[in-house]
Design brief:
alpha+beta, five-stranded antiparallel sheet, three-stranded antiparallel sheet, elongated
Length: about 130
Amino acid sequence: MVRTILFLLIVLFAAGCTNDKPRPEGISGITGTPAASAQELKKGSYSVHHFVKGNTVFVECFFPNGNFGKKKDLSKGELFITVTVDGKNAQKYFTPAFSIHGLKKGYHEISLEVSAHNEPETVHSPYSWTVKVD
């Protein structure tokens, strides 16, 4: 009985030590360069997700062919987002996820425009939505 249990434990241990792990279907490797060219940006689209918590709006943008840079060290073609709330207070963000703080109670129109550094012809269509702050 002890030999049978020991044998089964050894077999289970050996089976768990393999490197043959299943891969998810439909996911391919990254192709091309991380920086997007102007033509890729014009063809590509982006999506925006947001939620409101208190007087803060959390925003997350998804760019399939975009690359964001650092505020002080933008290279040509790197993206940045210009956000306006109620048509004023334009602010630039250099990351695809950010939060908008200090909104007063009520409805607010938020719009964002995505641009590429030093490529004025590469501008995504503006995205706007209305949020309600309770």
